[in-house]
Amino acid sequence: MYDRSPVNAKIGEEILPFEMGYLPEYFQKKAEAELHETPEKIVQGLRQMKEMAKKDKHTKNVNYDDDFLLQFLRVRKFNVARAFSQLKAYTLLRKKNPNIFTNFRFESIISTVKDRTISLLPWRCQDGCIVMLIELDNWDPETFPVEEVKRAFVVYLLGALRDPMTQVNGIKAIIDVKSNPIRHLRHATPSNLYLIYHGIQECCPIRIKQAHIVNDSLTFRAGWFIVKQFLSEKITKRVNFHKTPDTLFNFFPRAIIPKQYGGELENYEMTEWLKNILSPEKMATIGGIEVPHFQH
Q1: I need a labelling partner for 233 at 20 to 30 A (CA). Which of 62, 103, 130, 273 fits?
Q2: DSSP 3-state of 160
Q3: Residue 148 in this model has a pLDDT that exceeds 50
Q4: Beta-strand (E) ranges in the chain?
Q5: In this structure, what DSSP letter does residue 102 have?
Q6: How far apart are CA 215 and CA 244, in angstroms?
Q7: For 50, phi and psi rounded to 5 degrees?
Q8: Backbone angles phi, psi at 176, to 5 degrees
Q9: CA-atom Rg of the chain in angstroms
């Protein structure tokens, strides 16, 4: 009902910018139709989530922002029990992995823009999704250790989720897995791969709509063999493999895809957005819980 053709979508009409900060009327209707969202359900859901949090031993001493709780209600289509279960999983993830939710280093994370390791593209897909581009071959573990990669994902995902448009519409990923196996393969450990899967799919309150794999590699095949065992059939069906980048345009408008993949986008540097997300006042409330230590 709400799908729009990627072929005919135009910037300024169907294609909206990454930074929105509000839900246009079209997407309010989409939230109501797809997520069962109404003003009454928001009020009721937030109240129930807070009551459940106070009674659970893992969450009773944690203060959650309303905006943060709403992310979980939206990702679970206002099923309060499932939303609270995911909130608890997220809280436990933070407690078990404090190293990736603290000690954020400004210079390290901002380098992902310069190196084009992880990028959030400046325009949304025609259906309102944000688009994350991961270019594996640009990652040098010697200068950007795997722990810093994990912290960067936390900042990118939780920062993007501050926008209600992203909460409602979700994310699509384009993963360029061209890779130097000598540099990367040793980091494709079961524990690292499981953390990525568990953290993104079962803890982070984001709707994963599609993943698109381009430039297949030995590193990716090794990682995919492990990760696929954890994935449900529903998720694996959302993973699309592309022999050539041309087939990306069955899913994405050319206007929003970088030129090296056959698109029309010349500049996809999101430095200003990342600087804003990394400001001390924003970092103080990232993830809706306690204040993390931040190094600027």
Answers
A1: 130
A2: helix
A3: yes
A4: 104-105, 118-120, 130-135, 171-176, 208-214, 239-242, 294-295
A5: S
A6: 8
A7: -65, -40
A8: -85, 105
A9: 19
The reported pLDDT for the residue numbered 131 is: 98
Q: How far apart are CA 212 and CA 123, in angstroms?
A: 17
Q: Take residue 113 and report the two structure tokens written for it.
A: 């823009």
DSSP string, 209-259: EEEEEES--HHHHHHHHHHTTT--HHHHTTEEEESSGGGGGGTS-GGGSBG
Sign of CA dihedral 174, 178, 180, 185: positive
- Orientation of helix 146-160 relative to helix 106-115, angle to 10°: 90
pLDDT at residue number 184? 77
Residues β-bridged to residue 212 = 174, 240
Tokens 């608890």 appear where?
88
Q: Is 215 left (phi over 0), alpha (psi -120 to 50) or beta?
A: left
For 174, phi then psi, to 5°, come to: -110, 120
Three-class DSSP labels, 137-157: HHCCCCCCCHHHHHHHHHHHH
Give me the pLDDT at residue 295, please.
45
Q: Look at residue 114 and tell me whether its pLDDT is greater than 70.
A: yes
Q: Report the pLDDT value the prediction gives residue 291, as an integer from 0 to 100.
A: 39
- Determine the Cα–Cα distance for residues 201 and 277; give it in Å rounded to an integer: 22
Both ends of the chain: CA-CA distance in Å?
45
Tokens 């804003």 sit on residue: 276
